[in-house]
Amino acid sequence: xxxxxxxxxxxxxxxxxxxxxxxxxxxxxxxxxxxxxxxxxxxxxxxxxxxxxxxxxxxxxxxxxxxxxxxxxxxxxxxxxxxxxxxxxxxxxxxxxxxxxxxxxxxxxxxxxxxxxxxxxxxxxxxxxxxxxxxxxxxxxxxxxxxxxxxxxxxxxxxxxxxxxxxxxxxxxxxxxxxxxxxxxxxxxxxxxxxxxxxxxxxxxxxxxxxxxxxxxxxxxxxxxxxxxxxxxxxxxxxxxxxxxxxxxxxxxxxxxxxxxxxxxxxxxxxxxxxxxxxxxxxxxxxxxxxxxxxxxxxxxxxxxxxxxxxxxxxxxxxxxxxxxxxxxxxxxxxxxxxxxxxxxxxxxxxxxxxxxxxxxxxxxxxxxxxxxxxxxxxxxxxxxxxxxxxxxxxxxxxxxxxxxxxxxxxxxxxxxxxxxxxxxxxxxxxxxxxxxxxxxxxxxxxxxxxxxxxxxxxxxxxxxxxxxxxxxxxxxxxxxxxxxxxxxxxxxxxxxxxxxxxxxxxxxxxxxxxxxxxxxxxxxxxxxxxxxxxxxxxxxxxxxxxxxxxxxxxxxxxxxxxxxxxxxxxxxxxxxxxxxxxxxxxxxxxxxxxxxxxxxxxxxxxxxxxxxxxxxxxxxxxxxxxxxxxxxxxxxxxxxxxxxxxxxxxxxxxxxxxxxxxxxxxxxxxxxxxxxxxxxxxxxxxxxxxxxxxxxxxxxxxxxxxxxxxxxxxxxxxxxxxxxxxxxxxxxxxxxxxxxxxxxxxxxxxxxxxxxxxxxxxxxxxxxxxxxxxxxxxxxxxxxxxxxxxxxxxxxxxxxxxxx
Length: 805
Known about the structure:
There is one protein chain. The protein is of the alpha+beta class and 805 residues long. It contains 27 helices and 15 strands. The strands form 3 sheets. A 5-stranded antiparallel beta sheet has the order 2-1-5-4-3, with helices on both faces. A 5-stranded antiparallel beta sheet has the order 7-6-10-9-8, with helices on both faces. Helix 22 links the parallel strand 14 and strand 15.
């Protein structure tokens, strides 16, 4: 045959280059994607099938070369079909595709490969390759969407061209080849050129398609993993317990939360990368070995108590729960511990108390007795009367004396089981039980028994030693009750740090913190936030008339009304000072807040607590101010209560014993009451450079507000926005540099959050330039999300690390 070697070589080279590119840049990048492997296989089979044609120059190999070439070409096109189908149709299994392909090939293989009739062989080969092209075009068309239509259309055109060629070839084979056999070699040349063309163009289309789809998919998976990691780290860092995460393989510590570091006195860089044995946290190596063995056997541990050693060599007792977790094919041990030293000291006190009472009881006297194998009393000392209340005659007259004395409850069943088990095994035993004395009183006894065995090894009964431990048990119960009381008192003390001692409501400190949090949440979510402030009318006159003690009782009654009226878990009632109270109502509009306020006012008045010196009523009443805010409100968080106080002032001036909502803000922005970002000690990190830049950002924010107040042009406002963006970029770069210098473990995540905030801020500014948003929406995002909220929530996480430096 006359075969253009040069053209064939160029075609083969192109196919090999594309195959190499696909193999290097995609198989390596997407190792888990089987469809790429199938595509590369199809290319390889097609190229090898073309190379096999060269063997036809050897007469002895002509037939075999033709068979192998046709087979490899068909298998190559089939591999293309599997690759496209498995990539675009996620519901079908590759094994199913293999079955479909194998069935079709087995049916046509004889005709397209082994047939002696040239026309029949070429016709069936054309049909097989046409079918594969049509199936591929169909799958590509069904999978086309707006996101991938350009790349899909390119591949459809490629395989549609392929299908057209095989249709044309089939027609030529049927109608022309029988009368013009000299065109046989020309048909073969064009056929293999078409195969190479499909390889090159199809590979190009596939690369363009997967570059977009797979990268997007992997980015989503990465973001999901990052979100889960952040959630995991947040849980660990906010936990009140000591948390340590280490590798199961070698024990290397990968994470320790702040509570762990503070409790043991270490810095992060002293712990991460080390093992607990290197840090000498365990009291001794035997303890560590026992822990490792127990974990290996049980897989997880709960309430595992041990002594641990701090950096300064002091020791504490920890109660530890341990489990394993697999992250990215690596198994980690999560150890959660709590310092129970104080609790163990209480338990030791209880144990000492128990030992003392046991010693006293055992040394004072004991009832010694001997029973036969049926439980009948054989011998006893005189102390039986002191314990049972029965005379010796009454004791000997009873069968199975011990069980007759026991109170019928679960203790008898337990004692019976112990008797049966230990005596059958001819072993000693002991148990505590309750008995009912002759006078009807209940006593606790400690009974020890041991079997009596004859010289021949026969069971002859058992002997008992019984001690009255009633007083000891009372002491145990009293000690347990004392420990529970101490625990309750500790919980009360913790609650008192956040509550007002007299009224039991939240105190002002807790209220201020919650207002700050709810304020930022309001700015993010857009939900309304309402604040109610109430004041007891003429309370000074009430104190003068009834005395300060009765005045305190009055405030307690008002607080009780607040507690019973404010029922949502998210609402907070607090004593603000003196006779003033504040109610924080998240997710509540003005109408809802007024309803709550009116209910409060009516409920206080309904108490009918006498107030003879009141100038508006014979009973105690309250005046209430209501202020409601939304994300567009230009009021600083520390001024929210002030706005409710202003409404309260209006309620008092308009007659008292009424609810007054806050008046609408003036539309002309010329008042100093409008929002200014105010610097406070809560934002101070202790680092001079960072604090200076934070204050400068606050000044930039206030400058933008002044630009609104002075009604500056849009160009001037845009200039102010760009200045604050420049300052933000400079600050974020400087802050990340400082955090890396001090070894802050979350510096990379912090840098990502900086990048996201800057990108979102730029989007808002672009929309402002296009008149798609108002300047106030841009300010809401930059000031509350980028500056205030990021500083209040994210930056405060690294403040402790700066303090250590």
